[in-house]
TrEMBL record:
GO terms for biological process: proteolysis; quorum sensing. It comes from the Bacteria. This is Accessory regulator AgrB. GO terms for cellular component: membrane. One of its GO terms (molecular function) is peptidase activity. The chain crosses the membrane at residues 34-67, 79-96, 102-118, 138-161. It comes from Paenibacillus borealis.
């Protein structure tokens, strides 16, 4: 759905401005990212109004996105899958209310995950040179560390879930021994 909408929009833009140097494929790719974000934000906020967790959901939307920009993370295979999973995840996260001790534990685990894996999966998603990757890791860790002072349960859950997306798993074929 998102891919088709992006393709139609890119084609319409290219027909309206045929001499613009940006290709239709590049426009489509950029529009997929924009539509993805718009659908996630709109649907998540709509659900938050229904559930009564708008404040928590807004905090999750902002903090998850900020940490993701500096730390990277896994991407899902399609735009629609991303919208469905992310909207469901953010809505579910808005109900999680850890106590102070668990909040601090989630902060600690998040910092460890960032130290081990960040930045993750940004090589083909960003134009940031590799020489700045240690700085991205530091910025991500500092963001999380700030929550040791703020002690926001919602922020700790958001950072923890985003930090989990950094973990790299390999898809090795498991061979049985006969």
């Amino acid at each position: 759905m998102i891919e088709k909408l992006s393709a139609r929009t890119a084609k319409a833009i290219k027909e309206a401005v045929p001499h613009h140097p940006t290709s239709e494929a590049v426009l489509k790719y950029a529009l997929e990212g924009i539509y993805n974000a718009v659908f996630i934000i709109a649907l998540t906020l709509l659900l938050s109004m229904i559930t009564g967790n708008t404040k928590e959901t807004f905090i999750i939307l902002v903090t998850f996105a900020l940490l993701r920009q500096t730390s990277g993370g896994k991407h899902l295979q399609s735009g629609v899958l991303c919208v469905v999973v992310t909207t469901s995840l953010f809505t579910g996260m808005s109900f999680v209310k850890p106590d102070v001790q668990m909040t601090q534990m989630l902060n600690l685990i998040s910092i460890i995950l960032v130290a081990m894996y960040a930045p993750s999966n940004i090589e083909h998603q960003s134009r940031i040179p590799k020489k700045y990757y240690p700085l991205l890791k530091l910025i991500a860790a500092v963001m999380i560390a700030a929550n040791f002072i703020i002690i926001s349960p919602t922020v700790s859950v958001s950072f923890f879930v985003q930090a989990l997306t950094l973990i790299k798993t390999s898809r090795r074929e498991v061979k049985s021994i006969d």
